[in-house]
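Run log, item B.
One chain of 187 residues. Sequence copied directly from the ordering sheet:
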Amino acid sequence: MNPKIHRFILCKILGWHVSEDEIIAPSDRKAIFLFAPHTSIWDFVVGYFFFRSYGERLKVMIKKEAFKGPLGWLLRKLGAFPIDRANSQATMVHLIHSINESDKFYMVICPEGTRRPVKRWKTGYHTIARETGIPVYLAHADYRKKEVGYGKKVELTDNAREDTNRIQQLYKEMGLTAKHPKQFVTE
């Protein structure tokens, strides 16, 4: 589907707009986009149309349990990558290998790891970024403003927990409103 059609669906049909702070699409051929808040399946819908409006195929990690039956086919077609939470190490190795072997690879990761409220965000994105050398950008959806976008590139250190805490703070400073506000915890 044409990127303009994705942008039309996002903006005209769903009623969202793209953040004025958004930077021009990254020149990086590989990148991870952290996406927050993540409190509803609608985050996937909004994020999908936003990122596809740039004409790029994206990967998104979703628990493997969601890949049953026709939904699994659809999720794969949309760029979803099944995550085996019981064997996360093997999944991580496979993902890192896929990134390293690809000429172009964009992935969206929700660091919260679930739609439920969590105080301690996951650090898997950090391992992926450090092992592959690809940059990390902050992406967001704000349901109060009906605004979606990305912009800030985050420099990572060797300390995954400290970097993740800093990223949570950056999201807190954005003042975002989640689809289900009580489920979005940034501290």
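Observations after the first pass:
- Residues 137 and 153 are 4 Å apart (CA to CA).
- The radius of gyration is 16 Å.
Flagged for discussion on Thursday.
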